[in-house]
């Protein structure tokens, strides 16, 4: 009995020593909490460290990023909070976890509609919610989101869970435009058209189209790049080649629904200056190019080109509905999807 | 003395240890219970900050369907794990057929496969454009990819199947141990009286195994209930997915905590009810009853069927996903080589899982000893409370634990700063202690339960003898209980270790900066959809998880050793 206890004691002490050796507040460092997958953010951080000599420490958190920062409170090591989906940026601000940043570099690099007027958050990349259509079985050149509820697609539509932020954001945009009743009718129509249970990921839509399970579906633009480029292996190239990508608009024809990834400086950031430097780097032409090349996202910075695979999908016209309007309808969108039993 | 079987009330036989150790046991158990309650207090804190505004919507649109789905999932998985777990345990424990020695431990292998890995492996393998269906179509000359009537994995049925074939070892392990340890006098008597193998199994073996079945099935069902990886991926809308949706999609940790607490109350009540229902069932093997059970040699046809029955669960729960991982990893290594940080991730996973396992087993041994040695009425409720972490989804437990943990961390940080002026940051979270604590809270009941069921098979007369001969509780534990319990401790340690290796949600949320484990890496890649990049690390999880299974297998032939050991060491026992 005694020996194992000593082992525990020893381990605890060792762990404490190791912990103490990871200085969270050292100069020349910046701590990033991110819901972006490490494979995406690592290349950016490595370039940043190489150029500035500032070491970037990172932790990828799936859910609960806001709760971790909040409970860590005044002693939190978090400097920069990097999240996907506009709604998550708003949540960070609403919970009082961010601080405003004024920077001419950021104001110049990021269009005004993609950052908070007070500087609480900054958009860093964009992704469009597009339609994947079978190359063989769908002939339409142009489609609207509303068309997905058209009875002619009965039993032919594939989509991920109605509770996924990519979908709730699209539904929220429609509520903001057309109101709740019309959106509910649309959502019911799409549900009735489903070829299989809503679920899986966006790439599964392409694979299911290849397999003939469905003819048409919804996915994010960058997955097309990830599949077609071969980064996901040879099988995924086949999935990517089975689909034709249509940049849809709402029925008003104004543009395609776009969501953003972005970042905010944490309220209690111990390395605030470095966090701002990192933000400015992420908005720089060089980093924006990495966003475009490594993950096939649309850069936010004017003048930086999208990856050729993405550029070939057509010219993106962004739907002008303000992100703030869409964010307000997020919870309603999630509840609507449940009310119509979208996920079965 | 003959074997003690169902019906004889245990409390009268249990050793109470008046005076010595009682206070220590009580205080220790209370501390363990308090530790387990910490994340729940965190959830209460979140829940109280919210309004009740989401409940009308939940009751109208979510809860009825989610409850039904959850119930069906539990029923389905419960049925599968009971049939496979008890059936294979009965086969390998009591019969002789070719390959039995191999099956004995290979049946544990599916434990090493995490449910999220299982889900994406099967989705890939069983997809209409995947290898199985493509092969079958080629075989039958079908060209239409939809021409083959193949069951859809993305369904409730698919989830039941996938979870069933990886969770049955939770039943197999304790039930097999029980079959091996129990006296065979009754079984032999039944056979002598003309009962065939079927009736002997149904009327003697099965009732005797009931406590072990109950423990195993409740563990498997709690794993099912708290699973988020596979359910979400397969589109099965369980209650846990509803909690998750409320938290993530609607940004309401407050509402999610409210649902989680209500669900926890129901689950905990059910667990207590189950325990209450079998309070009179106690199976203790006496030292002298521990001779080798009579094994039946199977005739060729029966042996073939037995081999098939043992192989199929291993194939579905291990061979298929593991081969998939090997192939994907092979392709990936061929393209880009091994990831440079792989050994770092292996080291991190091993370190936290090992430390957490040692801590959890020690705590479990302490609690199980308390239950056996002292008769205080407070001890049982404290022990049941200390196991509550297993009844909460890992992701919810982790976020609940943040509140007390970060609070304590800030207290320490501020204290040190006011004393010395140094900013030390958050040491508990920053050092990984938070992770170890979370694992221990989550898996403590596996350790306690496993060791308790080991205790149930040690006759109380052993304790009495030790006492009469003047042993202290410490000495009794060290010299008598721990050696006799070694198979139970090893089995519990294996389950805890493998669970820690696979654990994902708490690891993601509570780890320090720059701290990557195998599981977090796999998830990061899978979330991005680059499964192949995650395949190498996923394979590493499975391989590392196999190590304790194999070690246990090597000591596993000692399954009957407890009694043999006893005969050797304590020849003069009554």
Automatic annotation (TrEMBL), chain A:
<feature type="signal peptide">
    <location>
        <begin position="1"/>
        <end position="26"/>
    </location>
</feature>
<dbReference type="Pfam" id="PF13343">
    <property type="entry name" value="SBP_bac_6"/>
</dbReference>
<protein>
    <submittedName>
        <fullName>Iron(III) transport system substrate-binding protein</fullName>
    </submittedName>
</protein>
<comment type="similarity">
    <text>Belongs to the bacterial solute-binding protein 1 family.</text>
</comment>
<dbReference type="InterPro" id="IPR026045">
    <property type="entry name" value="Ferric-bd"/>
</dbReference>
<keyword id="KW-0732">Signal</keyword>
TrEMBL record, chain B:
<feature type="transmembrane region" description="Helical">
    <location>
        <begin position="342"/>
        <end position="370"/>
    </location>
</feature>
<feature type="domain" description="ABC transmembrane type-1">
    <location>
        <begin position="346"/>
        <end position="554"/>
    </location>
</feature>
<feature type="transmembrane region" description="Helical">
    <location>
        <begin position="24"/>
        <end position="48"/>
    </location>
</feature>
<keyword id="KW-0997">Cell inner membrane</keyword>
<comment type="similarity">
    <text>Belongs to the binding-protein-dependent transport system permease family.</text>
</comment>
<keyword id="KW-0812">Transmembrane</keyword>
<feature type="domain" description="ABC transmembrane type-1">
    <location>
        <begin position="67"/>
        <end position="274"/>
    </location>
</feature>
<feature type="transmembrane region" description="Helical">
    <location>
        <begin position="156"/>
        <end position="179"/>
    </location>
</feature>
<dbReference type="InterPro" id="IPR035906">
    <property type="entry name" value="MetI-like_sf"/>
</dbReference>
<feature type="transmembrane region" description="Helical">
    <location>
        <begin position="68"/>
        <end position="93"/>
    </location>
</feature>
<dbReference type="InterPro" id="IPR000515">
    <property type="entry name" value="MetI-like"/>
</dbReference>
<feature type="transmembrane region" description="Helical">
    <location>
        <begin position="200"/>
        <end position="222"/>
    </location>
</feature>
<protein>
    <submittedName>
        <fullName>Iron(III) transport system permease protein</fullName>
    </submittedName>
</protein>
<feature type="transmembrane region" description="Helical">
    <location>
        <begin position="534"/>
        <end position="553"/>
    </location>
</feature>
<feature type="transmembrane region" description="Helical">
    <location>
        <begin position="255"/>
        <end position="273"/>
    </location>
</feature>
<keyword id="KW-0813">Transport</keyword>
<keyword id="KW-0472">Membrane</keyword>
<feature type="transmembrane region" description="Helical">
    <location>
        <begin position="423"/>
        <end position="441"/>
    </location>
</feature>
<feature type="transmembrane region" description="Helical">
    <location>
        <begin position="480"/>
        <end position="498"/>
    </location>
</feature>
<feature type="transmembrane region" description="Helical">
    <location>
        <begin position="382"/>
        <end position="403"/>
    </location>
</feature>
<feature type="transmembrane region" description="Helical">
    <location>
        <begin position="301"/>
        <end position="330"/>
    </location>
</feature>
<dbReference type="Pfam" id="PF00528">
    <property type="entry name" value="BPD_transp_1"/>
</dbReference>
